[in-house]
UniProtKB/TrEMBL annotation:
It comes from Bradyrhizobium sp. LLZ17. One of its GO terms (molecular function) is cyclic-di-GMP binding. InterPro entries: PilZ_domain (IPR009875). Residues 6-90 form the PilZ domain. It holds the Pfam family PilZ. This is PilZ domain-containing protein.
């Protein structure tokens, strides 16, 4: 399902998926709920103060052990909800792949 006219195919979570944000230097951590996710980014609801997001770059920890994570940057904040964009190892934004774009087209036409 493509939401809000976005470039990437997004999956909306049916159940609350608890994840964490962590500063790239490890000095802070915030609990949050994953609302939707795509290959290129995610929408999250953050618990607590959002002042730490001023860092602009941080990690989204997808597992309690920290073994599954994505490096990301802040795109927008609206109240307690935030949008993040995933960054690749070379420091560039993660592009939408051709298979994902083809899936978007087939889903939109149904």
């Amino acid at each position: 399902m493509k939401l809000d006219g976005r470039k990437a195919f997004r999956v909306r979570m049916d159940h609350k998926q608890s994840v964490n944000l962590m500063g790239s230097d490890g000095t802070w951590r915030r609990k949050c709920v994953l609302l939707d996710v795509s290959q290129s980014g995610a929408k999250i609801e953050v618990e607590g103060t959002l002042d730490v997001l001023q860092a602009k770059e941080f990690f989204l920890l997808l597992s309690s052990t920290g073994l599954a994570y994505r490096r990301c940057e802040l795109v927008w904040i609206d109240g307690t909800t935030a949008g993040v964009h995933f960054i690749t190892a070379d420091g560039k934004r993660r592009p939408v792949s051709a298979p994902a774009a083809a899936a978007q087209t087939s889903v939109q036409s149904k």
